[in-house]
UniProtKB/TrEMBL annotation:
Residues 145-272 form the GGDEF domain. NCBIfam families: GGDEF. This is GGDEF domain-containing protein. InterPro entries: DGC-Regulatory_Protein, GGDEF_dom, Nucleotide_cyclase, Rev_trsase/Diguanyl_cyclase. CDD domains: GGDEF. It comes from the Bacteria.
Length: 272
């Protein structure tokens, strides 16, 4: 693929451009999974135009294409996680030739590789959560500002590292990250913000008490000890919450507000 590719959308555009010269169907489009929906990132119509670019759908593509026939080629990661599909759509039955199947498979592999690389740049290598670079990308999407932010800071985590070593502490962070992921929805995003700090960005929680309910779940999740190398470890967290409820604030401002709320919570905890 050309060197000017900078994102999955770019790669999808080049894939579509090549496939339109090889595969003769009414419509070709590429849909990538984002949370609980698929977003159509690139599309090309030869005839019987479908205005699908930028549209989203859930598992059933017929919501987009109606009664037209289609052939779908999965786009997957190196470890076989499905990222999305290349769709061929036509009014007539679709039977790709061997050469067309080879081209489709090659494009799907290249798209999967591109997404793998894209994910690697925004993912924390230890916990598998998003990293601060991902937050930087969110900062640039002013229209995607979340409705709420939760700032989580582990209490006395330094003592864990001092008493058991940093390798033990890393294993504990992995267990904490896994437990945090179990408390949120697929559309929410967890970021490892610092060594022992986490941020959760919430979407589609229109009421602040919705975020508070998640906060209660997370607090409850810290009650049971974490198991590290067969050893139970108890640790607590200080949590601050900020919300766009009744106002507009940028993601940076929401994080700052949540950080301040967390700090106040931590200070109250230290008082005798």
């Amino acid at each position: 693929m050309p060197s000017k590719i900078r994102s999955t959308d770019d790669a999808a555009g080049h894939a579509i451009q090549l496939l339109t010269t090889l595969v003769h169907v009414d419509t070709i489009f590429i849909a990538i999974q984002e949370g609980s929906v698929y977003r159509i990132v690139q599309a090309h119509n030869r005839r019987d135009a479908l205005a699908v670019s930028g549209m989203t759908f859930r598992a059933d593509v017929s919501a987009i294409i109606g009664e037209r026939l289609y052939h779908a080629v999965p786009i997957s990661s190196n470890d076989c996680l499905i990222y999305g599909f290349i769709y061929l759509v036509d009014r007539d039955p679709i039977t790709p030739s061997e050469d067309e199947l080879l081209a489709l498979g090659t494009m799907a592999s290249l798209l999967g590789y591109t997404i793998d690389l894209e994910h690697a740049t925004v993912t924390d290598s230890l916990t598998g959560l998003f990293n601060r670079r991902y937050l930087d990308e969110l900062f640039q999407r002013s229209t995607d500002a979340p409705l709420g932010v939760m700032f989580i800071d582990l209490n006395d985590f330094k003592q864990i590292n001092d008493n058991f070593g940093h390798e033990f502490g890393d294993l504990l962070l992995i267990e904490i990250a896994n437990r945090l992921k179990q408390q949120i929805r697929q559309t929410d995003r967890i970021v490892r913000y610092g060594g022992d700090e986490f941020i959760i960005c919430f979407h589609n929680l229109s009421e602040e008490h919705g975020i508070r309910a998640v906060q209660d779940k997370i607090n409850a999740s810290f009650i049971d000890p974490f198991m590290v190398n067969g050893q139970p470890v108890s640790i607590s967290a200080s949590i601050g919450v900020s919300s766009n409820q009744g106002r507009y604030a940028s993601l940076k401002q929401l994080i700052t507000d949540a950080d301040q709320a967390m700090y106040q919570m931590k200070q109250r905890r230290k008082k005798p």
